C-alpha cells in the first residue's frame, strides 16, 4: 500500500498509536442567578451571655419560685351528689324539650352547632354542660335558657362556705 504524498488520511496507519490528548483545565463556570426564596429567613437563636463566675466565688442564689395556682379544695361526697343530680336533671329536661319539638338528636346538634354524640351524652347525664352550650341548645329549640334549666333549678342550693374569723 502506498501512501499518497500530501494527502491526509482519516485513520492512522495500523500499529501506530495516537498521541495522548493534552489535559486542559475545564473552564470556570459562571454563577447561576437564582430566584429569591419565598421561605422566611432562618432564625438564629443567640444564647444570652453567661455570667462569668470567678473561681471560688459563691454560686448565685436560686431564682425565685414561680407562683403556683391555688390548690383546689377537696370536694366532698355531698357536693358531687348535687352536681350529678344537676347534670341528670338537665339531661332529662333537654330530652323532654327536644321530644316536645319533635327534633332528633342529630337535628338539634346541627342547629346548636354541636356533635350529635355530645348531645346524646348530655341527655344521658354523662357530661356536665357549660353555660354557653346550654344557651346554644336553648336557642336551637327557640326557648329560654331559664326554661331549659327549670327542673335543675329546683335542686337544693349548695351550702355557702364561710371563712372563720379566727385566721
> Which overall shape is indicated by the principal axes computed on the Cα atoms?
elongated
Q: Tell me the fraction of residues in β-strands, as a range.
A: under 5%
The unreliable regions are: none
This entry's quaternary arrangement is single chain
Q: Could you tell me how far the N terminus lies from the C terminus, measured between alpha carbons in angstroms?
A: 129 Å
Structural class determined from secondary elements: mainly alpha
Helical segment tally?
A: 6
CATH topology term of the domain at 78-153: 434 Repressor (Amino-terminal Domain)
Helix content bin: 25-40%
Radius of gyration equals 43 Å
CATH architecture of the domain at 78-153: Orthogonal Bundle
CATH class type of the domain at 78-153: Mainly Alpha
The total strand number stands at: 0
Which homologous superfamily in CATH is the superfamily of the domain at 78-153? lambda repressor-like DNA-binding domains
Mind summarizing the main beta sheet?
Answer: none
Mean pLDDT: 75
What is the helix/strand order?
A: HHHHHH
Features:
mainly alpha, 434 Repressor (Amino-terminal Domain), 6 helices, elongated, 167 residues, 0% strand, 35% helix
Characterization of this structure:
- The chain has 167 residues and is mainly alpha-helical.
- It has a domain of 76 residues: lambda repressor-like DNA-binding domains (434 Repressor (Amino-terminal Domain)).
- It has 6 helices and no strands.
- Helix 2 crosses helix 3 and helix 2 packs across helix 4.
Amino acid at each position: 500500500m502506498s501512501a499518497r504524498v500530501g494527502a491526509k488520511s482519516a485513520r492512522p496507519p495500523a500499529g501506530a498509536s495516537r498521541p495522548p490528548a493534552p489535559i486542559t483545565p475545564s473552564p470556570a463556570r459562571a454563577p447561576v442567578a437564582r430566584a429569591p426564596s419565598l421561605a422566611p429567613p432562618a432564625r438564629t437563636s443567640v444564647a444570652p451571655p453567661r455570667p462569668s463566675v470567678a473561681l471560688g466565688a459563691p454560686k448565685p442564689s436560686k431564682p425565685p419560685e414561680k407562683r403556683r395556682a391555688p390548690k383546689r379544695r377537696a370536694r366532698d361526697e355531698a357536693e358531687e351528689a348535687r352536681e350529678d343530680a344537676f347534670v341528670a336533671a338537665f339531661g332529662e329536661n333537654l330530652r323532654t324539650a327536644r321530644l316536645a319539638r319533635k327534633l332528633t338528636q342529630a337535628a338539634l346538634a346541627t342547629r346548636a352547632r354541636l356533635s350529635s354524640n355530645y348531645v346524646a351524652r348530655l341527655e344521658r347525664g354523662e357530661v356536665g354542660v357549660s353555660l354557653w352550650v346550654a344557651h346554644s341548645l336553648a336557642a336551637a329549640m327557640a326557648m329560654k335558657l331559664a326554661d331549659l334549666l327549670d327542673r335543675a333549678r329546683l335542686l337544693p342550693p349548695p351550702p355557702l362556705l364561710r371563712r372563720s374569723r379566727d385566721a
